[in-house]
Design a protein that fits this description.
Blueprint (H helix, E strand, L loop, with lengths): L31 H17 L14 H6 L12
Amino acid sequence: MVLPQLPAYQNHTEANDPFWQRKYYAFHIHSSAKLEEKLNYMHLNPVKARLCEKSVDWKWSSARYYEEGKSVGVPITWID
């Protein structure tokens, strides 16, 4: 049974489908530089998709925290 609050794509997956779909894979962050690269990539996704003009405008983005030092509603901690 699929719960109604789950995303629509959940209705099209089976219990035995792979977690990582084609072209998606787990990636280990091994340095601060790589972490910054991945954060920049994630922050720019809604901009590239034309969902907002600036990454800090996207409601669910941590860009406001990293770029403006503003709260995003959840605590963000840096773990070395």
